[in-house]
Write a structure and sequence with these properties.
By secondary structure, the protein is mostly helical. The protein has two domains: 105 residues, Alpha Horseshoe (Serine Threonine Protein Phosphatase 5, Tetratricopeptide repeat), CATH 1.25.40.90; 132 residues, ANTH domain (Methane Monooxygenase Hydroxylase, Chain G, domain 1), CATH 1.20.58. The protein contains eleven helices and no strands. Helix 1 packs antiparallel against helix 2 and helix 9 runs antiparallel to helix 10. The chain is globular, with a radius of gyration of 23 Å. The mean pLDDT is 88. It is found in: Cytoplasmic vesicle, Clathrin-coated vesicle; Golgi apparatus; Membrane, Clathrin-coated pit. One of its GO terms (cellular component) is Golgi apparatus. Keywords: Coated pit, Cytoplasmic vesicle, Endocytosis, Golgi apparatus, Membrane.
Length: 310
């Protein structure tokens, strides 16, 4: 029993020692001393949410008024933190800093983050990350990997669509058929990654995970609204489509219906574990099943693209 009780205490001591050592090295060796220290303190081994003052120091260092070299260095430092750690708390708190920066900081940060991914292996690729120091840490590691996939998809969605669904005005309501068929699948893939963040087991009750999940839950509202507006627009055009477009549109519609059911379940889980407390989640209504049948009948008889005359 003594050994079992000593091990977590020893890990916390070693984690604190690592943080102290890293801060000491930054004070001596770094040209970006203040930024490096803020990153270490915002992403330390303490199993509690980061102190806001350290996150604010990081955000000041990567604000629009700062040189792009400072932004690039910050991304490099965060990537180094992610790649070297085997501790779930450090990894998760680093991802939260990145997530919050995408939401709260000038778009320069997002652009530099995408450029960093092009020139190197993607910093958000955490497929092999694991902290096997305890059963709880194992659970938390799984959630960290899923959360990293969501953030990676968030960047990919921006890269494809050329706008941020969370921070920019909605566009899917006014797109033409070709643009809708291109825009809706990336948005649905983003929602797919977000729905996968529904926590399981010990992860459901971890306060740092709940903090990250609350941001995702808020973003789900705009993601789903963009998909819903686009789907309504798509349905308005559906019965005039050529067969190839109608087949793609039907697949998008089916996936939208399935995802709306899953999002309702996601919100119920969030309410159960008190994530997004005080926020108004969407009330999602399902279309009648008969409408889907009508769409399927149209696809069977829809006109095919006429062959061009030679």
């Amino acid at each position: 029993m003594a050994v079992g009780g000593t091990q977590p205490t020893l890990r916390k001591y070693l984690g604190a020692l690592k943080d102290t050592t890293t801060v000491s090295l930054a004070k001596v060796n770094s040209d970006y001393k203040d930024l490096d220290i803020a990153i270490v303190k915002a992403t330390n081994h303490v199993e509690r949410p980061s102190k806001e003052k350290y996150i604010r120091e990081i955000f000041f260092s990567i604000s629009a008024a700062r040189p792009r070299a400072d932004v690039a260095y910050c991304i490099h430092a965060l990537a180094r933190r992610l790649s070297k750690t085997r501790n779930w708390a450090v990894a998760l708190k680093t991802l939260i800093v990145i997530h919050r920066a995408l939401r709260e900081v000038d778009p320069t940060f997002r652009e530099e983050l995408i450029n960093y991914g092009r020139s190197r292996s993607h910093m958000l690729n955490m497929a092999y990350f694991k902290d096997d120091s305890s059963a709880e840490a194992w659970d938390y590691s799984a959630w960290v990997r899923i959360y990293a996939l969501y953030l990676e998809e968030r960047l990919e969605c921006f890269r494809v669509l050329k706008y941020d669904v969370e921070t920019d005005p909605p566009r899917t309501r006014d797109l033409d058929t070709v643009a809708l068929l291109d825009h809706l699948p990336p948005l649905q893939q983003l929602l797919f990654r977000l729905l996968a963040c529904q926590p399981q087991g010990a992860s459901s009750y971890n306060v740092i995970i709940q903090h990250a999940l609350s941001m995702g839950a808020l973003e789900s509202v705009k993601i789903y609204t963009a998909i819903s507006d686009g789907t309504i627009n798509l349905v308005d055009k559906f019965f005039e489509m050529q067969r190839n477009d109608a087949v793609r549109a039907l697949d998008i519609y089916k996936r939208a219906t399935n995802q709306s059911e899953r999002l309702s379940e996601f919100y119920e889980v969030c309410k159960t574990i008190h994530v997004g407390r005080g926020e108004k989640f969407l009330k999602i209504e399902q279309p009648p099943a008969s409408f889907l049948q009508t769409m399927e009948e149209y696809v069977r008889d829809a006109p095919t693209m006429a062959k061009e005359k030679v």
